[in-house]
Design a protein that fits this description.
The protein is of the alpha/beta class. The chain has seven helices and seven strands. The chain folds into two domains: 49 residues, Orthogonal Bundle (Helicase, Ruva Protein, domain 3); 135 residues, Dna Topoisomerase Vi A Subunit, Chain: A, domain 2, CATH 3.40.1360. Strands 4-3-5-6-7 form a five-stranded mixed beta sheet.
């Protein structure tokens, strides 16, 4: 007969819900936290609470931030005539790290995926269109991931944006098909930005 300790089971179950964490890893992490000093476990709990209470979405680009508008949107040195559309906040970090792009961003928070029930209404598409004043925005760079969902999202956005008179470009290939932007190295991303082409 196995002995079940409810607090341990609860932590294992919660950790196992995280992406990339299976039941065995969840158990190892739980027992590590159980053996760790109380201060370390409390620091983790405080960091998670702080994350949930103090991180918000930027009111303009929908990137994650502590204040809105975010540092990128409120920076007058950034080029407001270009908007780079990405799927996730980690993609902003990846592109900005290259130092090759000085414009603004728009985070969709996903990509079109009919199989998973993700349509345009689940993404920040309407908010993107509201930002596209042809007088102010000259170029929209579609930097969705180079996979089936990312390509479908880019094509959908292109059809919506082109009639507005805004130039639409897509990151050049050179990024691995089926890969995610957050895992691409800086040189590959720099080359992709430099070699983008109009759709």
């Amino acid at each position: 007969m196995s002995v079940t300790v409810k607090p341990i089971t609860r932590v294992v179950d919660e950790l196992a819900r995280l992406p990339g964490i299976g039941p065995k890893t969840a158990q190892r992490l739980t027992y590590y936290l159980l053996r760790a000093p109380a201060e370390q476990a409390q620091a983790l709990a405080d960091a998670i609470t702080d994350l949930k209470h103090n991180v918000v979405l930027c009111s303009q680009c929908f990137n994650i931030t502590e204040k809105t508008p975010c540092d990128i949107c409120s920076n007058p040195a950034r080029d407001g005539s270009r908007i780079c559309v990405v799927e996730e906040p980690l993609d902003v970090v990846a592109i900005d790290r290259t130092g090759q792009y000085d414009g603004r961003y728009h985070v969709l928070h996903g990509a079109l995926s009919p199989i998973e029930g993700i349509g345009p209404d689940e993404l920040k598409v309407r908010e993107l269109l509201h930002r596209l004043d042809p007088e102010a925005v000259q170029e929209v760079i579609l930097a969705t991931n180079p996979n089936l969902e990312g390509d479908a999202t880019a094509m959908y956005l292109m059809r919506l944006i082109q009639p507005l008179g805004v130039t639409v470009t897509r990151l050049a290939r050179g990024l691995p098909v089926g890969g995610d932007l957050e895992y691409a190295d800086e040189i590959t991303l720099s080359n992709a930005l430099a070699g983008r082409s109009q759709l």
